[in-house]
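Weekly sync notes, structure subgroup
Attendees: PM, AL, DS (notes)

Item 1: joint prediction request from the bench team. They want all two components modeled as one assembly rather than separately. Inputs as received:
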Amino acid sequence: MIDTPRRVAIVGGNRIPFARSNSVYSHASNQDMLTAVLDGLIKRFSLEGEQLGEVAGGAVLKHSRDRDLTRESVLGTRLAPETPAYDVQQACGTGLETTILVANKIALGQIDAGIACGADTTSDAPLALNEGLRQILLDANREKSTAGRLKHLLKVRPGQIVPQIPRNEEPRTGLSMGEHCAIMASEWGLGRSEQDELAVRSHHNLASAYERGFMDDLVSPYLGLERDQNLRADSSMEKLAKLKPVFGGPEGTMTAGNSTPLSDGASAVLLASEEWARERGLPILAYFVDGQTAAIDHVHKREGLLMAPAYAMPRMLDRLGLSLQDFDLYEIHEAFAAQVLCTLRAWEDEQFCRERLHRDGPLGAIDREKLNVGGGSLAAGHPFAATGGRIVASLAKALHERGKGRGVISICAAAGQGVVAVLESAGGAQ
Amino acid sequence: MMRTRTLKSSPSILALYARSAVAMLPGTSLLPLIPGAGKEIPELELTLPGVKVKPAEVAAYAKVCGFSLRDELPVTFPHVLAFPLHMAIMADGSFPFGAVGLVHIENRIIQRRAIGLGEELEIRVRPSALEPHPRGRAFSLLTEVLAGGEPVWEGTSRMLRRGGGKQAAATATPRGSEENPSDSSAGDSADGGTTPQPAELEVSSEWRLSGDLGRRYAAVSGDRNPIHMHALSAKAFGFPRAIAHGMWTKARCLAALESRLPEALSVEVRFRKPILLPTRVQFASASRDQQIEFAVRDAKRGTPHLEGNVMPLEAQQTSTRSN
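Output from the run, pasted for the record:
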C-alpha cells in the first residue's frame, strides 16, 4: 500500500495512420491493427519480453469473435504473454477512458506500467444474423425432435437472409450522431463558416505537424499508408463552401467537410510510474494529472447528445482548483466542428453555466490559438476507440516540446457521455 | 552453362499446370514446350524484377495461415511470390519431368531482415542438379529475394521424384503404383539425424483442419495442385483424400510462433506423412537455447506430419562456422 498517489508518466505513444472507411485497411481487423500498434510501441521503447502491469484497450464496432480483443492482441505481440489485458467500451471515449484506468492503477501503486489502446474499423465491420432468423435458429436448436426443429425452420423467410448491419444510430432516439449534432448546432445558432474555418485549421495544423516532423515518433506506417488518408493540406474555405449539407436538412450547416468521416485505425499510449520509466532510461513526456467522465440525459431532458464534456470539465477543474483559462493547450475532439463550437459556446454562456452546470457564472472563453494546434479529428479521421490514444500521445509530446505547461482534453461520446483529462508537462505546469 | 531469363510479369500458373499435366501423358515429352525432353535438370535461372505485393493478397494469405496483418510480410509469404517461377522452371521444355507428382520433402527459409509490405522486390529462382535419394531422386528449387539489390530472403524447396531409373523419369507415378503415397512418409527418417525426439516437444494446441483447407490455401497461394483441391482429384494421384499443402502447414506453425520469432531467422522443416483433410492435428513446440523446435502431428496417433526448427540467423551462422 502507498500513502499518497504516485505521479503517472506518459512515456510516449504509437499509432498507425488513420484510413478512410473501405480503403487501404479494408482487410485489416481490429486485432491486426491493435497488434501492429502495440508491437510498434514495444519496439519504440524496447519492451520486448517485458511483463507490464496491464494493457487496457477496446473497440466500438466489435465482432462477437473478438471477445478478448485486447488480450488476444497482446498474445500476438512481443510483450511477455504474462501481461494481463482487458477490453473497455465507452464509444468514442474508449481511448481516453482506458488511459484514465491505467493511470489510476499506476497512481495507486497497483501496477507500475501499462498500455492504454484502442482500435476501430468501419470497413471490416461485424455483420450479425438477421434478428428474426437468429430467433428461429435458436428456437429450432432448443427442440429435441426433427419435426420440432422443422416447425421452426419453416418460419424462415427469404428477407431474413439480409444480415443486420451496425448503424451509426442512437438506440433510444433513432437519430444518427450527425442528426443529433445538427440539432445542437441549430440550438446554439452556429453558422456554416465558423464550422468550415475550424475544419480548415484542423487540416492545416495537422499538415504542418507532419511537415515539421512532429508526427515522426507518433505514427508508424501501415499497409502502405504513411499519413492520415483524410488529411487535405490544401483544404480551404472556398473548397469547403462547395459542399452540400449532410445533416440538418437543406438549411443545415454540417457538411462532409466539417464532420469526421468513418475511419479505420488504432493507437496506443505507454504509461508508467516515474521510477519505472527512469530505471529503463525511457523519456517522460508529460504527467497524467486527472480525468473525469460525465453523462447527460439526451433522451428525456432535451440535452444535446454530445454535450456531456461540457459537464465533465467544470467538475474536474473544481477538483484541481483550476479555471478553464489555466491551460496552454486545448485538445477538443472534433467529432464535428459543430460539437467543438457548441461546447465552447456553452462554457461561454452565462445561462447554460448557471442553469445546467449550476455555477455562479460562465467558465469563459479560451484562446482559440491554443486549440488543437497539431490538428484534430476532422483532419486525421476518427476511428472511434483510437482517437483518445491519438490525442493523449500528441498532447503529451506537444507539452514536452514546450518544456512546461498544462493541457486539457475533451472527448464527446455516443449515448450522451463525455470524458475529459488534464496533462502536465514533465517540466512543470508553469 | 547457366541460362538466365528475365520475366516481365508473373507467369500464369494455370497454363503451367496444363503443360505439367500434359507431361504425364506417355510420349508427350517429344513435343516442344512440354517437360520431359531433358535427362538432367537444366541450368536455368528465372528472375522477376519489380514485384510489388498487394496488401489485399497478403491480408487474404495471412487470414488463411493465421498470421496477423502487419506492415511486414509473413515470413513464408515470399514463397507464394516465387511459386509461379518454380512452376515455370518445372514446366520448361528442357525439364526432365513434369511438376505434377513431385513431392515437397523439405523446406528451408532464411530471412535476413523483415520485408516491408511496400518494398519492391526481385525474385530469382534456379534449380539444383538431380541427386540420388533413398526413395528416388531429389533436387532443390532455390529462391532468392532481393530488396533494393540487397538479398533479404532465401528459400530452398527440396523436391523428391519418387522412384528411380530412366523409364520412370518420363512419366509421373501413376495411380495404383506399388508406392502408395498415403502410406509412405514423404520424407526419409534416415536423413533426419538432427530431428529431436517428438516426445520432447510439448503440445500447445490442437487445430481443426476443414475439408476445404486445400482450396482456401490454393486461392491465396496459387498452388492448385489437384492433390490439395478435392478428394476426387487427390484420388487420381493415389491419395485417399485431399491433402494439406506443406507450405500451409509450415506457415501455420510460424503463425503460431509469430510473437516469438526473431526478425532475422532461419527456419527448416521436413514434411513427413501427408495431412489428409479434414482432420485434427496437434502443434507441439519447445524452446532450447535460442532455438525453437516444433512439430505437427496426427491428433489421434501422434504420427508426425511436419518437424522443424527456427533459430535466429546469427546463432545459425555461428553454428555453421563452428562446424
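Discussion: Confidence is low (pLDDT under 50) at residues 165-196, 318-323 of chain B.
Action: AL to compare against the crosslinking data before next sync.
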